[in-house]
Amino acid sequence: MQRIMVIGVSAGAGKSTFATRLGKALDVKVFHLDAYFWKPGWVEASIEEFSQSQQAIIKNHNSWIVEGNYTATFDIRAEKADTIIYLELPLRVCLYRVIKRWLTNLGNRRPDLGGECTERMEWSFLKFIITTYRSRKKAMKQRLDFYQEDKLVVRLKGQSAIEYFIQEIEKAKSSSAS
């Protein structure tokens, strides 16, 4: 696992936290796609800018963890990744976490957003999560089925599976350090 994509069924699945822990355990630099997509003031990067930033990450680093879904540029990362880790939690858990994150970070800037965007919540974002959850879950399954032929695809469904996986990586790292 040298070039890893961390994706999830939805916002609130725990991608950022998981990627950060995995990066520490493997000593691999983590890139949060939100930090490249969102410019100061919540202005979206153009598809060209966003694509170029991902191509630069992949080109300039031998190992990396890229966290985030962004299906429009999925293939840029997937082409070079050796591992794809997919996190899936129930819709109610994802929604709870998104709202909790918003309340916890209200008025603050999140590091996974590049530190340039103050936390916010919009009804349209919650509506997007709710109305697209099932279709994205189905699309992710098809996408992962396609890539599992030539990549390590790890599907972690449920918080206990996610936690077990990351703890095993962390244990392996600490036992190899001693």
From TrEMBL:
InterPro entries: Cytidylate_Kinase-2, P-loop_NTPase
Signal peptide extent: none
Coiled coil segments of this chain: none
Protein name: Topology modulation protein
